[in-house]
Amino acid sequence: MTVEFRLLGDVEVGFDGRLVDTGHTRQRAVLAALLVDVGRPVPADQLIDRVWADRPPYRARNALSAYVSRLRGVLTGVDGVRITRGPGGYLLAVDPLTVDLHLFRHLVSRGRAAEQPAEAAALYARALDLWRGDPFPTLDVPWFADLRTALEAERLAATLDRNDAALGAGRHAELIAELTAAAGAHPFDERLAGQLMLAQYRSGRQSDALATYQRIRRRLVEDLGSEPGPALRAVHQQILDADAGAPPVAPRARPSRGNIERRPTRFVGRDDDVRRVEEALRDGPLVTLSGVGGVGKTRLAVEVARRARFADGMWLCELAPLSDGTAVGHALAAALGVQQQQGLGIEQTITDYLAGRHLLLVVDNCEHVLDAAARVVDRIVRHCPSVAVLATSREPLGVEGERVVPVHPLPDSDAAALFADRAKAHRPEFGLDPGVAEAVGEICRRLDGLPLAIELAAARIRAMSATELAQRLDSSRLVHATRGAAPRHQSLVAAIDWSYRLLSEPERALFARLSLFAGGFDLDAAHGVCAEQGSAEEDTLDLLIGLVDKSMVIARHGAGRSRYLVLETLRAYGRDRLDEAGLADRFARRHAAHFTALAERGARAVQGPDERIWVERVLPDYDNLRAAFERAVADRDADLAMRLVTSLPELAHLRVGYESATWAERTLDLADPGHPLYAAAAGAAARGAWNRGDFARARALAALAGGRVPGRGTGRVAYPGDVLADVALYADDPGAALRHYSAEVERARRDDDPIRLVWTLYYVAVCHAVLRNPEQGLPAAEEAVRVADPTANPTAQSMARYALGLVLKKSDPERALALFDEAGELAASVRNFWWHGIALMERAATRAVHDDPRRACREFLDVLDHWERVGDWSQQWIALRYVVRLLARVDAAEAAVTLHAALGAAGRPSPLDAARPARVLGDERYAAASAAGRSLAGSAVVAYAREALSHHA
């Protein structure tokens, strides 16, 4: 009996082509949730979140078990299909290609790897034909709604790839109608517009193609304030040049459009405020929303950002988790996904990255780090002409050109509507009939129209009527409960105080202790830090659910572990209660100890098969890790600081950025050099200096280890001797590096340490490649693969495949390309930006010489973007050398000479033999191109290279 599972439309199961009944909506939701993660265990609490969100039934685990049991009955007798339950949760085992979602992804992946356009187009068509409508349209809980949105984005990406392939196969005429409709639905999509222009032009409609370009250019300029990107301009120029036979030049998909998440609650009222903020943003690059805590500044800013249209997206940076202003730059960089560039400070890195981008940056909760936030924001608005900043703060930043928009409490009608909306979440039958409306109006007036206070009061509607609630507010003298503050702030503090006093004593204790978390927490952290000794995790969960129900804590449910957040105003109130009880220091130390232990567990796990799981587990707590480090330093607890900073090179350094290396450097000043972790801390600090391009500082820090070798399990990048060898490798002494790593290979063999052995074998192969005898590195690379695969560690497997590809790229380029693809996918799967980047780079370089130079141009555009975001200029210069060679290969002599001169001006070697392009260009053009290159510096070199590649992609 054959089975088909369908998610790309209504949830359906077919046996031999016949649909079977899979039960009612919730049961189908359980099936769909298991099919999305087919072959992987899904924890029971995660399934409950997916199926019921924040409204699980009584005894939800029993209900889930019943649904699973019924599904087992439906699937009984089907070969190869089973639902099991183990320590990790429920698992549905079946061939993934029997699920249309996974078959769709498989076909799209094959399409992207296909060599011939016609073959690729056929594979994309098969994939898109699997869609029967909106995925699981009857499942309306947040997890499925978010997944539905993400799948629609996958569908659009596959459609755009299909269009490219079909254009390459000459099917332009049959695409015109579909492309015209799609361009109408996505009027700002440059890639789609470029595809339509090519289809129109190649169907003999040149005037229509040019009109399409003018139409999208006008929209981009008028609505987004930006010109079309280089790829779309290249299509336009191709048409103007009547170059009908060239392969399609499709604009690359833009990078991520931002990190503004969909909010689970409805935005109520404030239409006039939204318009005021939008007008202010049109008038100037910096707008600050000011007002008292709880007035709704953050929600208004997020709503404005959600409605905005910026070509490079809308990005939110939350400063509330920071304890002081020293980390503002790092917080902004982390929000943007940017790593500190070599030789530059973090603020210069940010402005360099933003200088050529058109985006909206929302900087939230500036008031407690006002000076630092103002300094960074001022620098951004001065040096990044296409960036708009929307800040929220209880007071203005005081930056030149700042437009301050005061955010006032809600008017009566909007306040009542907000109360009713939030009350319905607790009592679905709640409505504003005349008697209730009067009581609600009284409640909102007593709370001065402050949204946070109103939401706290609405959470009580489950336990009492609106009239009773109004009477309780009156009897508690809420408005006058706090002296010495502005009246509206009195109302907010009093509303929080009233809600706090209505909590049970255990709820109060937990709420106050939760104020220690920076940037959110999960159940494990809440229990580990805040629970009384001997209490069960289920008790903590019950208390946490109670706080969520009463709107004192926000729950955020995603694809992974559920996380919780205390709003900053509530967090400050809770911290005051903790201070009053004299418990702040005690629980702050528990917080630091908990997150240090979490980092240690993660550091061990990321060197094994569960690397991805632990990266996703630990990285959301980066703000808590920072707070834990600062606490250890404040307490002068050198041992705790040492344990923490030596756990972060694997987890944070390769995935977040180089901030944790500065923590290691600070710890060296605190700790005794005899500490057993001192050498690892020196290695972590030295690696940070190396990444920043400060080789002298790297040598000095590595020397502090006194030649000691860190113990087994130390982060791969944190060996002081390796840092010294890498300095030699990049400073033109690869022989010294080879001698070091050859000796370390033997040490790793003696220690029976496979992770260390893969690392050292990898470097032996790299050193031989740099010394131009890659064949001598082949045995080391092959051994690295043999050693890495049994570890099932993605980073080790990625490194080994990269090393083998590197030594084979001249002798067996086809195999090398496949190895680089595997290496990149493995690194990306665990968010390892460094090894992902070098795999992308070597794949493009190999393709440029041995495969398809035009495709290599497109791939190098991605490489340049990657290293610009990562901020690793040592790799960016290598990429630019490859680009020079590639431009010469595609007969772009003028651009090659310009970049050749730019490399020379920066003191970097160039691979170009200038004699040939000098003959091609002639003396005058050659001199002009060289002068242009010498005038380029830093990011301007990258921008020029990007433009040149776009014309040949």
TrEMBL record:
Which SUPFAM superfamilies does the UniProt entry name for this protein?
Answer: C-terminal effector domain of the bipartite response regulators, P-loop containing nucleoside triphosphate hydrolases, TPR-like
CDD domains the UniProt entry points to? BTAD
A Pfam family the protein falls into: BTAD
The OmpR/PhoB-type domain sits at: 1-94
Q: Give one GO biological process term.
A: phosphorelay signal transduction system
Q: GO molecular function: any one?
A: DNA binding
* DNA-binding region extent: 1-94
Under the heading PROSITE patterns, the entry gives: OMPR_PHOB
Keywords assigned: DNA-binding
Give the family from UniProt.
Answer: Belongs to the AfsR/DnrI/RedD regulatory family.
Family annotation (PANTHER family): HTH-TYPE TRANSCRIPTIONAL REGULATOR RV0890C-RELATED, REGULATOR-RELATED
Per its record, how is this protein called by name? Putative ATPase
